[in-house]
Amino acid sequence: xxxxxxxxxxxxxxxxxxxxxxxxxxxxxxxxxxxxxxxxxxxxxxxxxxxxxxxxxxxxxxxxxxxxxxxxxxxxxxxxxxxxxxxxxxxxxxxxxxxxxxxxxxxxxxxxxxxxxxxxxxxxxxxxxxxxxxxxxxxxxxxxxxxxxxxxxxxxxxxxxxxxxxxxxxxxxxxxxxxxx
Length: 181
Description:
Layout: H1 2-32, H2 39-59, H3 68-78, H4 85-91, H5 101-109, H6 112-118, E1 132-133, E2 142-144, E3 150-154, E4 157-162, E5 167-170, H7 171-179
Antiparallel strand pairs: 1-2, 2-3, 3-4, 4-5
């Protein structure tokens, strides 16, 4: 009789565990089925989005798009003591004409802009240095995930450029497309 109770108790425990874990497993399945990569990409997009909001709160506007004139205007507004931002960038080996959306994200949120224009790093997002690359050899760093997809700024929002999907997606787009199946 004792074995019967042990088996019954064990079976009951397994059933309860399965019922409790099912919703958690379902949510994880949704995130890992995403063709943009594992769950941490979505979490990281959210964290980068918060860093963009912190940037706006601190400086009154989002980081500028990678356009030379807009970058210079932004630097003059944000770092108003800087007389010639273009020469500071050139002396650091950075050419504004080579800056793109991917590199812009790392430059503004990673503290490089503050380091160059204020003389001290002021990091709004702690990028993992092992995932910073200079894919095009222009001295501007880019941030990649474990699958080699790039993070960047698209229309003022953080996005991940999915090679599997062949397009960029913001967190809002990912949530709409992959959580409402």
